[in-house]
Amino acid sequence: MSTAESIAPGSPVLRVAQVVPRTEAEGPGHRFALWVQGCALRCPGCCNPEMFAFERGTVMSVDDLAARVLSTPGIEGLSILGGEPFSQPSPLADLCERVRAAGLSVMVFSGYTLAELKAQTRPDVERLLATLDLLVDGRFEKDQPETQRRWIGSRNQVMHFLTARYAPEEAQFTAPNTAEVHFVEGKLIINGWPELADRLRP
């Protein structure tokens, strides 16, 4: 991953927790998955508590991330998780605009509801929202595990179809949840279904 020392002054940057270049467990089709670092919501039972602290993770340039996403063969889009993506809306909007311009789809998982995000009336938040095809919103509720809807962590969460690219009646949105195990850059990563991922963690 890039480090702060290798990034040109003035270039937009993101604080990144982890990357899985190719997954089927974080949205439709094969996707590049990016977990951002930092979350103020800190939902009890979150499967990624190591991503709460804002000072952790790796600082990466948006230029480098965009190049990595767009050079990954055979992917349908980019999925962004966390952490909380809307804690870094401006650089994420930069990244997502480039991805969408190249014809890929964008999906974001946020602990904030869509109504809460719109109520902030922040231009950077609205700009990021404008790049999304899919948004999964709402706090993770550990006592309401979702077992029927794919890519959803708890029953209170909602998937918003923000463009016509996908439709809720498509079979892929009602298939069973899955978890994956990856070995990326010397690190074992389990991603996908939160409840199952927790069981598989060493």
Task: Pick out its properties.
single chain, 202 residues, TIM Barrel, two-stranded antiparallel ribbon, 21% helix, 25% strand, globular, disordered N terminus
Structural write-up:
21% of the residues lie in helices and 25% in strands. The protein has 202 residues and is α/β, with parallel strands linked by helices. The chain has one domain (4-177): Aldolase class I (TIM Barrel), CATH 3.20.20.70. The strands form two sheets. The chain has a seven-stranded mixed sheet with strand order 3-1-2-4-5-6-7. A two-stranded antiparallel sheet has the order 8-9. β8 (179-184) and β9 form a beta hairpin. The longest helix is centred in the middle third of the chain and has 13 residues, at 89-101. The protein starts with 12 loop residues before the first strand and ends with a helix.
How are the elements arranged and paired?
Layout (H helix, E strand, L loop, with lengths): L12 E11 L7 E6 L21 E4 H9 L6 E5 L7 H13 L3 E5 L4 H6 L3 H7 L4 E4 L20 E4 L17 E6 L2 E6 L1 H7 L2
Parallel strand pairs: 2-4, 4-5, 5-6
Antiparallel strand pairs: 1-2, 1-3, 6-7, 8-9
Structural class of the secondary structure composition? Answer: alpha/beta
**Topology-level CATH name:** TIM Barrel
The CATH superfamily is known as Aldolase class I
Number of strands: 9
Largest sheet composition: 7 strands, mixed
What is the CA-based Rg, rounded? 16 Å
Domains counted in the coordinates: how many? 1
Helix content: 10-25%
- What is the subunit arrangement here? single chain
Count of helical stretches: 5
Poorly predicted tracts of residues = 1-5, 195-202
Distance between the termini: 24 Å
> What is the CATH architecture descriptor?
Alpha-Beta Barrel
